[in-house]
Amino acid sequence: MLEIWTxxxxxxxxxxxxxQEAIVERLSSYVAEKNIPHxxxxxxxxxxxxxxxIALAQELFxxxxxxxxxxxxxxxxxxxGIVRHKIKDFARTSAFxxxxxxxxxxxxxxDALTPEAQGALRRTMExxxxxxRFILSCNYSSKIIDPIxxxxxxxxxxxxxxxxxxxxxxxxxxxxKVDIDEEGMNVLLKVxxxxxxxxxxxxxxxxxxxxxxxxxxxxxxxxxxxxGDIQDxxxxxxxxxxxxxxxxxxxxxxxxxxxGIDIIKGIHGEIFNISLDDRTIIKLVETIGEYxxxxxxxxxxxxxxxxxxxxxxxxxxx
Amino acid sequence: MTKTNLTxxxxxxxxxxxxxxxxxxxxxxxxxxxxxxxxxxWKGFNSLDKNxxxxxxxxxxxxxxxxxxxxxxxxxxxAHALAADMGWDVIELNASxxxxxxxxxxxxxxxxxxxxxxxxxxxxxxxxxxxxxxxIILDEADNLYDRSGDDGDDKTEDFSDRGGKDEIIKAIQLTxxxxxxxxxxxxxxxxxxxGALHQCTRTVRFxxxxxxxxxxxxxxxxxxxxxNATPVxxxxxxxxxxxxxxxxxxxxxSLMIGRSEITSExxxxxxxxxxxxxxxxxxxxxxxxxxxxxxxxxxxxEADVDMGMVQEWIAENIPRIYTNRDELxxxxxxxxxxxxxxxxxxRRQYYRYRRYVGQLITGGVCVAKKHRHGWSKMQFxxxxxxxxxxxxxxxxxxxxxxxxxxxxxxxxxxAITVFVPFWRIMAKSDNRLVFNTIYxxxxxxxxxxxxxxxxxxxxxxxxxxxxxxxxISDSIGASSKKISAAAFDDRxxxxxxxxxxxxxxxxxxxxxxxxxxxxKPIVPKTDAVEPLIPKIxxxxxxxxxxxxxxxxxxxxxxxxxxDSFF
Lengths: 318, 566
Hints:
The structure holds 2 protein chains of 2 kinds.
Chain A: H1 5-8, H2 21-33, E1 39-42, H3 49-61, E2 69-73, H4 80-92, E3 103-108, H5 115-127, E4 132-138, H6 146-151, E5 153-156, H7 162-175, H8 182-192, H9 196-210, H10 215-225, H11 229-238, H12 242-254, H13 260-271, H14 278-297, H15 301-315
Parallel strand pairs in A: 1-4, 1-5, 2-3, 3-4
Chain B: H1 6-9, H2 22-38, H3 52-55, E1 64-68, H4 75-86, E2 89-93, H5 101-113, E3 117-119, E4 125-127, E5 134-138, H6 164-174, E6 179-183, H7 186-190, H8 194-199, E7 201-205, H9 211-225, E8 228-229, H10 231-241, H11 245-256, E9 261-262, H12 264-267, H13 280-289, H14 293-299, H15 307-321, H16 325-348, H17 354-367, H18 382-389, H19 391-408, H20 412-427, H21 431-441, H22 445-449, H23 454-478, H24 485-489, H25 498-511, H26 544-565
Parallel strand pairs in B: 1-6, 1-7, 2-5, 5-6, 8-9
Antiparallel strand pairs in B: 3-4
């Protein structure tokens, strides 16, 4: 078994899911009836959407769950092709499990699907609804087109309450004999911010690398794992050191394998932390949005980001 | 008045008549003489190493020569003159013949192998006296559209030369006759599987002759044809040719027709420059330094690289020239907008948009500046250089990301940006976890190398393979069931033997220093690694045997782009 704790301790039954009691209760009744509608799970990262989908499949299908469950991540294949081929092929073959009579497709991060792909998905959902049920997960249900939403039972996964995260992590720390004190736990909870996956990952990484999970240790690990390359690039652009900024961009894309969207997300997230006047910040938001649009429309993500860096450089000139 | 083409009429027939390239001529001559000397005992290239007696004193001898150089500098002429000087027959195969495997085998390989037969140009055999040799000339060998085993970027649909390169390599290795390959672009010839070709050939590079040399040739022709021309005329023609002797002669010929005297007035009727593709630097100069939008737009069509590449060059160099932030942003904005059109072209297959792309990246970028700029250093697109350097690494990253994403139910993006950095931190101190991840995710050596230091990888893999061995012997001992051999190769455990395997795993783990959870990890010494460990680069990946070649090829591709621009 994989020693990555997020996997090792991933609940196999709905009962064990942390902090989503209402949802679990509802879904358990589906399991009892051996039937589910199409489902839409919406909520921030680390709140149990994937885990719930997998646990649901395991409860429904038992030993055969893997044959009856297709998991895909729409952010990896966001085009219409994924719907036309992979999904359809799986959907139209009949179910393995005769008592249940349908299969389940779990489409993670479905808000990454293009509107065209969502349109195609809508028809597929309808056509194969007898033999196949869909579970879509997304961060924001608003990014899912209405016709799909209306075909799904929507479940909103709220951020997990801090108490629930604390209890879970404390229990996990005991099981894995992790040395963690009150202070360390408080910082860990802040870093996790309701994201259980992040909390568990941090607990494992810090205890493995540093021994004791103390505040400094957590920050040390964070600074190595998330070294702020994007911020660095952004500040170079603002300082007018365009060539250096571009060099960093190239490094992020090649060495770190970041996608254009990852980077533009990072840039956008950082804008509000820079000390700039409000007007400039809003101008930057507009510009970043424009370039994200061009990136989606265009052919070459890197070219768009290079141009964005040049625009940022101009907008922030005093 | 000329009856035949002047280039043919005045083509030199012996080495002595050829202008310039003294060194090359000497090298070719030496090669030919070696051939002549060793031919009776020559048993093919593959016998070189074993049969040292044969080649004593001929170190580095190669059965084939590659002649590389720009058009019109005299490569073909040289080849024929060499044959004439040596008294050899010639078989010539050029791009106008389809050169697929069969055709090359028909003409070259069989010709190369045969000592007593020769061919007519159509490939049919003719017998001739013993001992004479035949020079096999493959003209325009770089235009071989060779597709076998090549999944590269070349999207050509013409497969008529399929398998041609392999056959040429085979011919060179077996030949009993000297072979000359003539190319404009050496790197294009080498391309995929170039290693083997490189090994059995030597290359001579033809330089463009100087203006003075061309003038000498033109003078000789004028005398021969009994036509007068003023020195100015000769000078203009020679300058315009830019090293292309054949072009110069053709120009002269067009001026000579119907005249017995050429004056400078006749010359004004044609452009000062032969319509040669502009080097990318000239194009960049017009776009980035000057203020003439019309010319900037037009320059695109004169560039010697395609539009995508022009765009990369411009994007690379805008910030080097447009140092003013406003100009920089406006220029990059044009590139960005052009790219949006490019995206729409791809999505809708609507190629008319291409004109907007072209005009924005040239004219648009040109008018983004406020005034002329002075010269400043321009460069080959940095990103492209880095991309091709890291091609292999990125491929490994992709397969690694896929395995991670399947195993921990996350997107590829999360796998690379979040999981890998965290995991690397743990890998430094937790060998047990490393071992477990490799095992459970079924990582290969290259993939695991992305997750930790290279030295560590070797050491971990040594332990890993030991464990594998133990697992196999344990399962044979513990189970009376027959286990198929295939199961042993499978790095994933066979489900039926899970418990045994897990016991074995724990046992091995407990022997690995640093994995008992208490003591600090012992960083392994590299020299402790035994031959049991496969070299990082050739661990299982099926394509990895081609890896070296591919990498070399990439390097060369890179060079070619550089070479042709500088």
